[in-house]
Task: inverse folding
């Protein structure tokens, strides 16, 4: 990791997005002016209906898509052509579709790809790879081709590829979908144990509640709500307006801690 | 048309090699302008696509083997300089990885299939699109003609080289006749596939067609309540040109043209669509992407990973391959017959 | 969906030939092909020597003859052509097995068949002992322009992507009761073939973006060390040197 | 639809799988002798950890994979080469990855593909297409290319492609993943409203409980448990043994009805 980790209130926010708009090449406009700020060390959930633009937003956070209008800043650094490399070191992005993420012939090579690009070699590289795979419980598959794994296994490897890079900011696009319940909890434990900024897209409201103090609701390409997860989930009217609802059998637990 | 080792004499091989190296060198410089971070994968895809297209490979009586070339398609999609590089890469990969085309004949193969087809195809394409304004329909039509012309042009160049330094003692006229005849046919198929591909790319990703870019629309900003906000500053990236969205009327020629193409394609392209992809897949799985086994792989296709018989495409593709095969055979036979007759007449005259 | 499919060209192994750095092998094979092509076609013995040299390499690399023969099917189109040359060729004619054949035609056929086959076998051996990825790294080491190497790398990757997309599309078609009974279904296939190009491209584009987001900057991280020692080069030049000696001998012995 | 729908207790079970074993071409064995029977009209959930073989099993049910050992019968018809077509008419399969399901240039073509193969044309075909898309709330996207939709939108279209064929047996591989909560409930409502046999793979235990009376647990390539969803979910030891657990904040509701 380059650059010393800054802590304290005076460090710039991890993510600042302002007036971000974007249209896909075929003309579909997906974002219509998104504003948000995420402070260092926060864990934030990004909620919203299908097609709201969550994935599109997330792809801007490490410069994979470039803003049609507006700006994105990562740890104070504006996302521009010349800062891209630095930004991609800082932001680790787990894609919604694991098939987009995995491309090397074996799981080992795939997980090693990121750290190797950061300049790691030899034992240090191996340690990172094994460590990341152990965390997601996929060490056994280290020599298998990723496209021969089950969907949930691929998702776990996809998470490992990003963990291995030890980014300062973790952006995850529906990381818990297709995971079995135990892996889902284990992933939550991993995310809680890391001292990094987390932005997580999810449709699983209880999961968001468990993991993130704060939530954003993105709907129709704009931020429709921003606040404590607990209070957003208590607002039935707000949820219903954005196709969100608490699942069958779920009761919002009393505020803990 | 991949030329093997030993087909041309040394001077011609070396000469063509020099032409190829110069050409590729020029294109490497030119491509820097066409190619950015994003289009590098596009170039790779075009190369892969051309590789697949070139797998439609059948023996031609008085040439080595004939297949679709793809140079014009590449030029239209990624620009002429990058196109030469794409096709050259295909030929290099075929030569070194797949043993297809001789290593000492690489110069000849690059000259014929990368440089000649691209230059001719691009020239024709520019000529038409410059002189006939008319948006998408014109681009599609121009792609058809450009691809159609590029193939016989390449065959002509082959004949020329053969005349200068071919090692086989065959009457140059019969080479020209056979190569020309077959490649006009191949050219039609090439034109159809090129037009279909270009029109389908234009329809959904106009930004991917070189020279047909700039269709970006203006962005809209909204508040959380859905009210529109005026866009204050000009977007950081290049200002989008206010282009009119194509009206239904403008699109009609495209649809009609597309329909005609689809009907015509029933023969040629479905052969490509059905046999080539699945054949390709089978070949890839069973034989290691060995291009030329494709024609032989059609008859029994126990499909790769899933162990399903290719029930759908198989019969169709075999049927079509049969039809195409018969056509080619008749043609090739005709060429041989013509040659033999000529020779006999010649003998009689002597 | 990655390079997994290429294993059929490549035969994994741990022989001296496999271990040679790829750049050495590329040079050796190219030089061998030049020596073969430069040999006068009248020296039958020289071609026998070349064949023996290749056989020795195959033995050293433990590539079975069956594998090579199967891959040699690639020659079929020009074998057919070569067979035709004596029949349609011009010039002096001779009676062979009751057929009137052109004598220069027979020479030409022999010339093409012998030289092309030797070239094909050399390339097969190269591909059988070198992973495609390594071959690209070797090419990069040989200073082949970066742009060409990059396009080639993407091309190999996209071949997998296309194959993968085709497989997925075929399964999807079949699972919805599709049967291509006759020509009427052709437009369906044509239409889905049109979609194939875009789909493959976009999948590949997303994968490319995923690579970028993990710090890819146009070059695969060289996890393995690829430098060739003097000994490696020494090993590698044995084949082309012997071939060149044969070629020179073939020219000098009248 | 060919063949009249049979009802009544004397009709053969919708699905009978016996001693099914399967190994992938690379040698990984995924199924080790699966036995199960699903009666006509039942709704059954298939639960199990990642890599248990659920997808592999499901792919056998309409002959996409062919049994390495053992047999599969659909409505009394053994899955064999000559019965494949008939079986694919009867069994509608929603794949785990929507990209595997969608292949035509537009959503309309894609949804029409299946019914057109069943011989429908003209108005009847249009009706089916619009109907299916309305049900999943994707009618607006009818003329867009499916690969330009968001992941959740693609999943909804994937479900529509199968609904449009009106199969008598619906097999769904994690249909609710990546769906927003409202769509998830809507899908449950659709499935409840259909009078068909349903086998649904899911990692969402509350969802399984809501929708399916019966559940199977597939673990390590064999059926580890088979019974009423309610009682399986109440057995904490059984769940834990197969990496299943009830989510945060969830309480098994008292038995209703
Ligand atoms: N490649 C693309 N081309 C054109 N339009 C697209 C593309 N990808 C997404 N869209 C459109 O942009 C909008 C936002 O899509 P996005 O993928 O960001 O949604 P999302 O919030 O991630 O939804 P989901 O929860 O389903 O993943 C949608 O209307 C979608 O149809
Ligand atoms: N194409 C393949 N080639 C080889 N092995 C495979 C392939 N697909 C899956 N496997 C293996 O087979 C086993 C079962 O996989 P399957 O996809 O059926 O699991 P699953 O129960 O669907 O899991 P998930 O909940 O993650 O989707 C796993 O160990 C997996 O690694
Ligand atoms: Mg998304
Ligand atoms: Mg699965």
Result:
């Amino acid at each position: 990791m380059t650059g010393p980790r800054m802590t304290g209130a005076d460090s710039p926010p991890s993510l600042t997005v302002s007036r971000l708009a974007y249209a896909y090449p075929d003309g579909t406009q997906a974002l219509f002016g998104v504003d948000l700020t995420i402070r260092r060390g926060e864990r934030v959930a990004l909620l919203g209906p299908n097609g709201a633009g969550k994935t599109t937003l997330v792809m801007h956070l490490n410069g994979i898509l470039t803003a049609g209008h507006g700006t994105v800043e990562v740890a104070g650094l504006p996302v521009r052509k010349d800062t891209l490399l630095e930004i991609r070191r800082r932001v680790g992005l787990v894609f919604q579709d694991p098939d987009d993420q995995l491309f090397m012939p074996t799981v080992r090579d795939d997980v090693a790809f990121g750290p190797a690009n950061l300049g790691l070699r030899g034992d240090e590289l191996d340690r990172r790879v094994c460590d990341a795979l152990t965390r997601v419980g996929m060490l056994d598959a280290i020599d298998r081709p990723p496209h021969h794994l089950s969907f949930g296994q691929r998702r776990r490897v996809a998470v490992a590829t990003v963990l291995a890079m030890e980014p300062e900011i973790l952006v995850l696009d529906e990381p818990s979908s297709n995971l079995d319940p135990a892996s889902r909890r284990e992933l939550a434990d991993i995310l809680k144990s890391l001292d990094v900024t987390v932005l997580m897209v999810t449709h699983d409201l209880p999961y968001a509640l468990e993991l993130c103090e704060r939530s954003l609701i993105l709907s129709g390409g704009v931020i429709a709500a921003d606040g404590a997860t607990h209070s957003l989930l208590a607002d039935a009217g707000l949820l219903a307006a954005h196709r969100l609802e608490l699942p069958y059998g779920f009761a919002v637990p009393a505020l803990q801690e | 048309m991949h030329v093997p080792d030993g087909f041309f004499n040394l001077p011609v091989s070396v000469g063509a090699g020099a032409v190829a190296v110069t050409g590729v060198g020029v294109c490497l410089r030119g491509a820097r302008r066409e190619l950015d971070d994003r289009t590098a994968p596009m170039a790779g895809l075009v190369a892969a696509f051309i590789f697949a297209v070139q797998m439609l490979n059948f023996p031609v009586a008085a040439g080595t083997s004939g297949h679709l070339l793809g140079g014009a398609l590449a030029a239209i999609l990624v620009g002429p300089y990058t196109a030469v590089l794409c096709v050259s890469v295909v030929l290099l990969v075929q030569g070194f990885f797949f043993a297809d085309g001789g290593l000492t004949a690489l110069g000849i193969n690059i000259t014929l299939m990368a440089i000649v087809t691209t230059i001719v195809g691009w020239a024709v394409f520019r000529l038409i699109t410059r002189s006939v304004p008319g948006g998408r329909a014109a681009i599609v039509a121009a792609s058809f003609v450009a691809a159609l012309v590029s193939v016989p042009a390449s065959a002509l160049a082959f004949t020329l080289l053969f005349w200068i330094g071919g090692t086989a003692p065959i009457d140059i006229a019969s080479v020209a006749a056979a190569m020309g005849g077959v490649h006009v046919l191949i050219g039609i198929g090439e034109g159809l596939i090129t037009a279909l591909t270009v029109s389908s790319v234009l329809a959904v990703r106009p930004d991917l067609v070189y020279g047909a870019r700039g269709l970006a629309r203006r962005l809209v900003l909204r508040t959380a309540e859905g009210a529109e906000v005026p866009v204050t500053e000009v977007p950081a990236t290049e200002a989008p040109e206010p282009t009119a969205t194509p009206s239904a009327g403008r699109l009609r020629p495209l649809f009609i043209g597309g329909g005609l193409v689809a009907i015509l394609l029933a023969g040629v392209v479905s052969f490509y669509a059905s046999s080539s992809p699945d054949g390709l897949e089978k070949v890839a799985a069973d034989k290691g992407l060995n291009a030329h086994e494709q024609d032989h792989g059609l008859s029994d296709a126990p499909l790769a990973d899933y162990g399903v018989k290719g029930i759908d495409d198989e019969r169709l593709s075999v049927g079509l391959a049969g039809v195409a095969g018969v056509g080619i055979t008749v043609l090739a036979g005709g060429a041989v017959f013509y040659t033999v007759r000529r020779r006999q007449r010649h003998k009689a005259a002597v | 969906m990655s390079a997994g499919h290429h294993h059929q060209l490549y035969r994994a192994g741990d022989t001296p030939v496999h271990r040679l750095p790829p750049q050495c092998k590329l040079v050796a094979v190219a030089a061998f092909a030049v020596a073969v092509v430069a040999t006068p076609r009248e020296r039958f013995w020289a071609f026998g020597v070349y064949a023996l040299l290749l056989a020795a390499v195959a033995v050293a690399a433990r590539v079975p003859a069956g594998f090579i023969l199967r891959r040699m099917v690639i020659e079929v189109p020009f074998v057919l052509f070569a067979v035709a040359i004596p029949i349609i060729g011009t010039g002096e004619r001779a009676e062979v097995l009751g057929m009137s054949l052109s004598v220069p035609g027979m020479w030409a056929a022999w010339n093409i068949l012998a030289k092309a086959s030797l070239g094909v076998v050399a390339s097969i051996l190269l591909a059988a002992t070198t992973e495609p990825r390594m071959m690209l790294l070797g090419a990069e080491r040989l200073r082949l322009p970066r742009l060409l190497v990059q396009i080639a790398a993407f091309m190999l990757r996209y071949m997998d992507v296309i194959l993968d997309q085709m497989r997925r599309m075929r399964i999807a078609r079949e699972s919805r009761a599709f049967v291509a009974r006759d020509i009427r279904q052709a437009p369906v296939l044509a239409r889905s073939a049109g979609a194939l190009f875009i789909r493959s491209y976009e999948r590949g584009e997303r994968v490319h973006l995923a690579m970028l987001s993990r710090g890819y900057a146009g070059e695969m991280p060289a996890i393995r060390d690829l430098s060739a020692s003097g000994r490696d080069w020494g090993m590698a030049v044995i084949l082309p040197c012997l071939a060149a000696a044969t070629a020179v001998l073939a020219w000098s012995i009248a």
Residues 1-8 of chain A have pLDDT under 50 and may be disordered. The CA atoms of residues 47 and 146 of chain A lie 29 Å apart.
